């Protein structure tokens, strides 16, 4: 049993660490408005990212990318999460973000939707969450009803990140409400300029995101734009969901690492009542808890990612990576803020943004309580008599 990263992955990690430290952290308060890059910034950073040889690192080789495995991607997500230079949601400097669902399309659909995204000619958004169905997709109300060679979609989606500039949406719909998430959901690729689509409003959030609320009224979509067969919606989304949970865990490792760096440095510098903060047992305990949580989380993420690369089903492990990573990274941001006192509340430091972003991660893409409920069902099945 070897817990060390392979040599090539350790080199990747070291190179990314230097890149983040020298190119991103020094300018992290000057690159974006919290939601999008400022004019000219993304192009500059993308050029530097290309020089690292990591362009399209998460796109399979058959589609023109590097096709890195889950463990390699976890290392990248971890290191990049140490800085707020890149907005936390729907932004990348290593090429367009491609939803894994698009890799499962048929050849005709790939030509129209996948390849333009990979080339940077089109962007997409993912429409699942609804006012009555967030973490419970089985309660989805947005419906798709067959009408000849088309489907008619009606419904209401909200918290849709990236809809501002999206050319098309991956819309999760109910095609059989009685079956719910067990064969009753279907995904469609819907052009955003299709008649009947209305972007109601952008919602101001406490986090660095301004997602959209969208209404679909008698939106006619050709059956040729259905992903897979009717009822394949959750199966199509499963790879995206599992990888997304691993990404949450890896991001958590990076955030805790940066909070440790900031907190330990400040504790060694700051004096109160004639002694360094680092001499206070309360502060020491905070740092130790952060360090321990980081160690546990990194082992969990690396193990789950490695097992995914071996073709294993890691849904249970991904649940734990997601909720433990989000909870512990938010706790780390909170402790780091407390150690910094008033300075932690300012925008001179990245702590307040880590605090807001990581608090939101506990809710999005699977709240802690729902993931624990799903995990409990499997534990009872696997270990109960």
Keywords:
single chain; 385 residues; alpha+beta; Butyryl-Coa Dehydrogenase, subunit A, domain 1; Butyryl-CoA Dehydrogenase, subunit A, domain 2; Butyryl-CoA Dehydrogenase, subunit A, domain 3; 4-stranded mixed sheet; 4-stranded antiparallel sheet; 9 helices; 10 strands; 44% helix; 15% strand; globular
What do these coordinates show?
- The protein has nine helices and ten strands.
- The two termini are 31 Å apart.
- The model has no long low-confidence stretch (mean pLDDT 93).
- It has helices at 7-24, 41-51, 70-80, 107-118, 233-269, 281-309, 315-340, 351-361, 368-383, and strands at 124-127, 143-147, 150-160, 168-174, 185-191, 197-202, 212-222, 226-227, 271-272, 275-276.
- It has 385 residues and is of the alpha+beta class.
- It folds into three domains: 7-102, Butyryl-Coa Dehydrogenase, subunit A, domain 1 (Orthogonal Bundle), CATH 1.10.540.10; 124-227, Butyryl-CoA Dehydrogenase, subunit A, domain 2; 234-383, Butyryl-CoA Dehydrogenase, subunit A, domain 3.
- 40% of the residues are buried.
């Amino acid at each position: 049993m070897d817990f060390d990263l392979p040599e090539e992955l350790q080199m990747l990690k070291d190179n990314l660490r230097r890149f983040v430290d020298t190119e991103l952290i020094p300018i992290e308060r000057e690159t974006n408005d919290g939601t999008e890059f400022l004019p000219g910034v993304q192009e500059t950073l993308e050029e530097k990212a290309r020089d690292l040889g990591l362009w399209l690192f998460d796109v399979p080789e058959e589609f023109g990318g590097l096709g890195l495995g889950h463990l390699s991607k976890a290392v990248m997500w971890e290191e990049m999460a140490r800085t707020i230079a890149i907005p936390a949601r729907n932004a990348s400097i290593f090429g367009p973000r491609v939803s894994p669902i698009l890799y499962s399309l048929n050849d005709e659909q790939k030509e129209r939707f996948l390849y333009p995204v990979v080339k940077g000619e089109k962007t997409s958004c993912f429409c699942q969450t609804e006012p009555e169905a967030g973490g419970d997709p089985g309660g989805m109300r947005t419906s798709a009803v067959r009408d000849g060679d088309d489907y008619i979609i009606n419904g209401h989606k909200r918290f849709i990140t990236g809809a501002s500039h999206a050319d098309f949406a991956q819309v999760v719909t109910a095609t059989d409400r009685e079956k719910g998430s067990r064969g009753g959901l279907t995904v469609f690729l819907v052009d955003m300029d299709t008649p009947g689509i209305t972007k109601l409003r952008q919602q101001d959030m406490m986090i660095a995101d301004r997602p959209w609320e969208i209404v679909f009224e008698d939106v006619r979509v050709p059956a040729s734009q259905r992903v897979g067969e009717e009822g394949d919606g959750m199966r199509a989304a499963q790879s995206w969901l599992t990888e997304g949970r691993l990404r949450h865990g890896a991001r958590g490792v990076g955030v805790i690492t940066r909070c440790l760096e900031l907190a330990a440095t400040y504790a060694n510098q700051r004096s109160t009542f004639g002694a360094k903060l680092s001499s206070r047992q309360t502060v020491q305990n905070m740092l130790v808890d952060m360090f321990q949580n980081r160690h546990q989380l990194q082992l969990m993420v690396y193990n789950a990612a490695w097992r995914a690369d071996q073709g294993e089903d890691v849904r249970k492990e991904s649940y734990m990576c997601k909720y433990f990573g989000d909870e512990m990274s938010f706790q780390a941001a909170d402790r780091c803020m407390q150690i910094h006192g008033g300075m932690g509340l300012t925008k001179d430091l990245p702590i307040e943004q880590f605090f807001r972003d990581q608090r939101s991660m506990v809710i999005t893409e699977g709240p802690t309580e729902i993931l624990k409920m799903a995990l409990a069902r499997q534990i009872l099945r696997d270990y109960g008599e």
